[in-house]
Amino acid sequence: MKKRIYLFSIVVVALLIGISALTIVLVNKDTSEKGAEEITEVVIDDEFLNGWNKINITLKEKSQNNYNFEDMDLHNGDIFLLNGESKGLELKEGDNVLVDLTIIPDGLSHTGVGYILDGKYTEIFFAPVSDKLITSFDVKVDGDYIICIIGGNANFITIKGGVISID
Questions:
Q1: 132, 139, 137: which is closest to 162 by C-alpha?
Q2: pTM for the full model?
Q3: Among the listed ranges 11-25, 58-72, 138-152, which one has the minimum average pLDDT value?
């Protein structure tokens, strides 16, 4: 009798694990239409990031050197390429770039910010974030910078408001 209960318990646990895994896959599947966002083929000189989903996000210019975007879901393995893959923000040496994100995560979510210049990705910030992410960097070389937001979280986060300011 104990053997039957033991085997039954193993089968029940295995079924629960399978159902949980299936639920996670189905819930995290993004069925929304991406509209203006599109998968791009930007070349990043980083083997790890090249396999990630690259999504082009066009920034809206609020005022001179102030750009914004909002209400975007960032999934695990997504890279938001802000302002597109072929036209980054034209930055000059000495500029200071501030990235300010208001997010709604599922608990603490690992989120990164960086930029691509001449195909090379440079990480500025990567850590668990709970509701606000503010980071900045100083431009050392003139060029077209593609600002990136990276989703390294198990679930997705919603970016309710994003602002990029250049000073």
A1: 132
A2: 0.70
A3: 11-25
50-53: Cβ within 8 A, 24+ apart: 51/77, 52/77, 52/78, 52/79, 52/150, 53/77, 53/78, 53/79
d(CA 55, CA 45): 17
Report the candidate in 157, 158, 155 with the shortest Cα–Cα distance to residue 29. 155
φ/ψ of 33, rounded to 5, equals: -85, 140
Predicted confidence band of residue 8 (pLDDT cuts 50, 70, 90): low
pLDDT tier at 106, thresholds 50, 70, 90: confident
3: tokens are 């053997």
